[in-house]
Amino acid sequence: MIRNKKAAAKASVLAAAAALLLAACGGAGVDAEASAAPTDAAEVAACGSYAIAMHAWVGYTASAQVVTEIAKANGCDISQVTLAEAGVTYDAMEAGSVDLVIEDWGGGRWQEWADRGALVQVGDNGNIGIIGMYVPQWMADENPDITDSANLNKYADLFVTDESKGKGAWYEGPPGYTTIGEKMISANKLNFTAISTGSEQALIDVFTKAAADKTPAIGYWYTPQNFLAKVPLARINFPANDWTDPEQASGLTDYPELPLQKLATPKVIDANDAFTKIVKNFTWTNDDQNEVAADIESGTDPAVAAQKWIDAHADIVAGWLK
Amino acid sequence: MSESNSAISVNNLWQVFGPNPEKIVGSPDAALPRAELREKTGNTAAVRDVSFEVAPGEVFVVMGLSGSGKSTLVRCLTRLIEPTSGSVVMNGEDVLKASDARLRELRRTKFSMVFQNFGLLPHRRVIDNIAFALEVNGVSKEARHARANEVIELVGLQGFAQAYPEQLSGGMQQRVGLARALAVDPDVMFLDEPFSALDPLIRRDMQAEVMRLHEELGKTMVFITHDLAEALRVGDRIAIMRDGAVVQMGTAEELIANPADDYVADFTRDVPKSHVLTVRTIARPLASNETASGRSIPATTIIRDATAAILDADGPVAVVEGNTTLGFITPRDFLLLVGGGSHG
Amino acid sequence: MSNTKETMFIAKPKKLKRGWLIAMLFAAWVVLAKIFQGQATLVLAVPEDTGVTTWAGNVAASIRANRSDGASFKYFFNPIREFIDGFVTGIREIIAIPAGDSSIPLLGWLGVIAVIGFVVYAVSHLRMAIAAVILVFACGALGLWTDSMDTLAMTLAAVIMSLLIGIPVGIWAGLSDRALKAVTPILDLAQILPTLVYLAPLALFFLIGPASATIATMVYSIPIAVRLTAFGIRGVPVSPVEAGTSMGTTKIQLLRKIQLPMSSRTIILGINQTVMAALSFVVIAALIGAPGLGKPVIDALIIRDVGGGFVAGIAVVLIAIMLDRSTSAAISIDESFVPAPASARRRRKLGLVSAGVATIICIVLSRQLAWAAYFPEQVDISKPVSNVTESSIFWITENFEFLTTGLAKAVTVGILNPLEGVLSNSPWFLTVAMISLLSLILGGLRSAFITLTLLLAIVASGLWFDTMVTFTQTIVATILTMLIGVVVGVWIGRSTRAERALRPILDAGQTLPAFVYLIPMLGFFGPSRFTGIATGIVYSIPIVVKIVGQGIREVPTNMIEAAISTGSTKWQLITKVQLPAAKKSLLLATNQGLIFVLAVVVIGGLVGAGGLGYLVIVGGSKPELQGKGLIAGFSILLLGLMIDRIAQYTVARNSAPKH
């Protein structure tokens, strides 16, 4: 069979090569069709192709999708790349495989990459990130003093589970998220074990169940996040905040309020095209983000949800494009 | 036989496996029995100090049991295995000193080999198997197929040129092996137990075929076998190997008539002597009470062929060479030998 | 003869003694662990560093700092990355991403499907080609055309590069003993190393993106190509090679005309295995920026979108089946060297030519007409598939809580927690001593020495506690895997019908990337240690079942006939004859099971299983923990080595005297 097979292999390689040649030379008729289609071709300036980093949480998706839709409408070629937060994403920017992070929670971890010229901090995106430890509202209602971290140990027994080794179960954020739970536990001498939840959804499950069944739970949460509107949570207050540099943080602290950042590669800044303008000018409020995020969470396609917001806020979007 | 007119001349050939093969040859250790040598040095001497000459057109058989080193020996002659020391001279050229390129040339044109497991290439047709050596030597397709077709005719494979080896029986496959070895018209053919894998009946056919080819083409052959009957049938001369060394070498008759040691004697015990020996070997002087019958037979007659002459006589028959009488044979001597009552 | 009899008689009491020793060891272990519970456990909070991890962090930081100007990056790593990036982009532009200024890839969807159909037809047969076309179309129908094509392109790119390197190296190792000796340790190590461990160090040098994903995939799949190619070359019978040499072939002629054609089946099998390995890695490589189906899978894991992840998982499965079946169809057709009769060949030629013409027409169409260029959005079954999945998982978790929550709780409370108490929650020196002693009893002195060294290295790394957490999960998952695997393995070993029925499932199970299994498990069990364990079990059962089944089937018939003729019951036959006779297979299955389980349990870090896998993942995203992540990866390697060594020595010891 070998000979026959060899011939077949040869034939297929030849045919494939011929086909590719044909394809490459032919020019895609589809392109002609596309450009002939009635768009505002005259107004659309040339725009490059860019990759936006996608992170897992819905709020991020909302922001990134809005930028994506506006950029596409302005002739940019946009792809989305799913990556974990921070380090992985900064490395991707250094490699040039990702051009934009629309909502960075890294608290300055990117500085080293910025120093190397791998990325540029473009500025705040308008959202204020607040991370914290939360309990379901009913617990705070029943035990008003629980929201003071000094009293947490008193209630530790309530939180014991199979997974928590006899101490209170402290549900930490997912691996990709900014977390300092263990530092908080040790610095505040809390009788709790930090348990890594794999996903944001897992935390949602924990809190939803805790609210519905009135079971005790303490876990990581953050705003902006639409979830708090659905399941009320009470934030635990920790002692004064000295969390400016994650490496130096004593842990006797709470998560700080974090103005969320836009990070882009130098390529974006240098291009000076429509995308550059959008990236530079994009800011919106926590409420804006929650609005889009709520739609996405309820099952709307992210692109559709983003477009809905864009259509409703044409003036703001027009401002970003100037 | 002098070196100049022999087809192959092998001198003091050694092949030692193991950590330091060169150090063994020539050292006192070389004389140790195999097991002791391995124990002491970790080396195994597969071929030990073998020397022989093969005359042009001769069929030289190397015989021995498995593990006796005969297969290693034949591989050393063509350097499929590199010998440790010694020389192998073919047509005045020491094969062991040949460069890689020269060795390839020799293999492509001067000698060829037939293998026990045929060694055919399953992905090639019969004709391309046969033409393989010509192909690797850069002979054009037309020329090598023409030559292959000649050889196909010669070995009786007509009609199978386009078949694949797996479509042929074992005997037919080995015909392809023979044809392949003949295709380059070599000076010397090496046959490594070529028929061991075949059924006995087919084996006989193939032996006959080899004898026929030998008669027609007169190729010098080195024939390896573990089967004494085969050795006796095809061999002009036979070397018997044991533990890597040649224990005895000679014509069939010499081996059977005068085994060098018990090992050889053991080997040859079951051979019907009357089929191999000439009357010369059993001729003896007349005893005092005997009188010659007056009949005579030539000394080179095989005993079996002299049956009628011996039994029909009414007394001892004279064995003569030219005009000299070498001795006599009685019917009783003859019957004792054929009946195999006692040997010697 | 008398010798073997003697060893048989001596071996018996020795084995008995060993069983007792192990039991006593465990008893002592449990008691001591209870007494010293919680002391000297070397727990290290996630944000904390040790000397070793700090050092690794500094090394990593200095490597990062070197990336833009360092000579090694300028002249070595970056050129490699750029070259591979160009290559990968080139292949992606053919089928997956817009090529150059065009709005579509070189081939629209119809063109891609036609080319795939044609190539599969050319290397196997029409039926397979039709199946391939349907499978690829189904990927598009799942709404994942672009991602599927990206996965296919990434796999293709990685496979081409892997074969370009792997086959020559394999040929070299096939021809030269010295070369084989040189590559063997690397090949062995590659078999032990869990996939997750490759990613972080490679990302450090090649950053994040398609290029580094391709490099990581190559690192994973090259050893497979090397191993099988070398195996194939070495498997060529001696006599044709000798015959070729005796006819004066040069080494290259010998290789080209004899060794390669005769080992082609094994080499094609190697290509098949390389393709499957690359595919499974490309999915995981989404963690370091590989485009394709891995993206939705990871998304699904992080935001627990079980339905969406399942849809992506199905697409991975479809591609896996397509690639596996068509590459293995290429092998089976080559069974005989004899070509088909002339008429069949003529028919096939005609078929190829017409298929080729049809393909070219499809390609042209796919570039000229929108419907053939963009996969039709109307054909989208992803929503219903996702909904059905979600509702059925919801239904199962609701109605079979005893099976999901109950099972998870039973294993967690019943086995996992107590075992963690013994392994990770007791003093480190106790655990080190006990594991070393166990290794001594099982594998002998050398085994114990290596075990002790590896364990001390883990202690020195500072990640002892996390390593023991991972180890505990590995053991629990392996025990459960073996329980199920041996039962099913004995079943298929004894029943040809069962074997025939299960074989396709086992084959399919073996070709799927571990990642895909995580999604339904996450749906059933939520984020927990048990999810990782359950995934490990599901992932490693096929290999265990296969090995055990084969072991049982290979028990000599005369042994079984002898047992039956002495009146054994079926149960006696299994427990007293077949299982003991298949002991080597059982040990081998345990070893494979452990290594497979470890690879998956580590990925469990993504779904809340904690341990080393979690640290590896955290280390990727938090630069200040990168050192810790790297050391965690290294500890996984040490753990894998330890498991493998103990298993190997145990196997060697148990199979040394052959009765």
Please name the two chains that share the biggest interface, counting residues whose Cβ lies under 8 Å from a Cβ on the partner chain. Answer: A-C, 78 and 99 residues
The CATH superfamily of the largest domain in chain A bears the name Periplasmic binding protein-like II
What is the SS-derived class of chain A? alpha/beta
> What radius of gyration of chain C results from the CA coordinates?
27 Å
Helix content of chain C: over 70%
How many domains comprise the coordinates of chain A?
2
Strand and helix order of chain C: HHHHHHHHHHHHHHHHHHHHHHHHHHHHH
Can you identify the CATH superfamily of the largest domain in chain C? MetI-like
Q: Care to count the β-strands of chain A?
A: 9
Characterize the overall form of chain A.
elongated
CATH class of the largest domain in chain C: Mainly Alpha
Can you name the CATH architecture of the largest domain in chain C? Orthogonal Bundle
Annotation keywords:
heterotrimer; B: 344 residues; alpha/beta; 6-stranded mixed sheet; 4-stranded antiparallel sheet; 15 helices; 13 strands; globular; C: 659 residues; mainly alpha; MetI-like fold; 2 domains; 29 helices; 0% strand; disordered N terminus
What's this, in brief?
The complex is a heterotrimer of chains A (322), B (344) and C (659). By secondary structure, chain A is of the alpha/beta class.
